């Protein structure tokens, strides 16, 4: 039996030094969605890079600087609603628990930047639903989400967009989930993070890719 430790990852708030990964992230989002036959709102490398420059994204790298995962924040209805969008993990690292660590980090960043905002998501992935549930999200109807047309227009590139419009945005194949800070007081589950070596504690930490009780299901990149 090997005594080799799990490979650690740096999970940090992205900034200008990470913009070079934007094209790779977009390519992986698109190829993963095609492979699964699921929809995802397409983003350009420029859009992803802008999120990094705004401090509204989280990136995971291995200790050699190789890209491992990503997620970003979008705001709607003048900041009343927040979405943690585009959760994606490198194919070789899926089922490792890394997605949950990234999701925890972006949720923490969202709560810090927008403490009074409702955080919502649309997903078809069971693993993402479980992660969201652990963070305090609850399944809701589409009527409880933002009515911002800009958000719903982002669904146009999804293969299921016609279904959404036929149902007048009242339902689709995605499950809607919502965290309402006025209703939920659940703290971030920090005990589930295995912090190995803090780097700039307020912003960056090094994590193991394996956590106790990590979900073994793969992650759908449409984890908004």
> Mean pLDDT score, rounded?
81
Q: Into which percentage range does the β-strand content fall?
A: 15-25%
- Please give the count of helices: 6
Q: Looking across the biggest beta sheet, what order are the strands in?
A: 6-7-5-4-3-2-1-9-8
Q: Note the gap between the termini.
A: 39 Å
Q: Kindly state the percentage of residues in helix.
A: 25-40%
Q: From N to C, what is the helix and strand string? A: EHHEEEHEHEHHEEE
Write down how many β-strands occur, each being a DSSP E stretch of 2 or more residues: 9
Structural class: alpha+beta
How many strands, what sense, and barrel or not for the largest sheet?
Answer: 9 strands, mixed
Cα-atom radius of gyration: 17 Å
Query: In terms of per-residue confidence, which ranges show pLDDT below 50 for 5 or more consecutive residues?
Result: 1-5, 190-203, 208-224
Overall 3D form: globular
Description:
With 224 residues, the protein is of the alpha+beta class. The protein contains six helices and nine strands, in the order E-H-H-E-E-E-H-E-H-E-H-H-E-E-E. The chain has a nine-stranded mixed sheet, sandwiched between helices. 43% of the residues are buried. Mean pLDDT is 81; it is low at 1-5, 190-203 and 208-224.
């Amino acid at each position: 039996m090997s005594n080799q430790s799990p490979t650690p990852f740096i999970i940090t708030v992205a900034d200008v030094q990470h913009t070079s990964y934007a094209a790779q992230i977009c390519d992986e989002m698109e190829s993963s969605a095609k492979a699964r036959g699921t929809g995802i709102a397409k983003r350009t490398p420029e859009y992803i890079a802008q999120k990094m420059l705004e401090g509204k994204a989280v990136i995971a790298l291995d200790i050699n600087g190789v890209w491992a995962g990503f997620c970003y924040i979008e705001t709607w209805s003048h900041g009343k609603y927040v979405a943690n969008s585009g959760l994606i993990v490198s194919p070789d690292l899926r089922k490792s628990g890394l997605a949950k660590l990234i999701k925890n980090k972006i949720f923490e960043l969202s709560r810090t930047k927008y403490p009074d905002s409702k955080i919502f998501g649309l997903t078809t992935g069971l693993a993402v639903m479980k992660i969201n549930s652990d963070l305090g999200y609850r399944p809701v109807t589409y009527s409880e989400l933002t009515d911002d047309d800009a958000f719903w227009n982002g669904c146009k590139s999804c293969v299921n967009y016609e279904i959404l419009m036929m149902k007048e945005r009242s339902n689709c194949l995605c499950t809607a989930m919502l965290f309402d800070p006025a209703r939920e007081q659940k703290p971030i589950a920090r005990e589930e993070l295995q912090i190995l070596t803090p780097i700039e504690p307020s912003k960056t930490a090094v994590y193991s890719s394996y956590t106790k009780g990590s979900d073994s299901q793969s992650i759908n990149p449409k984890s908004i």
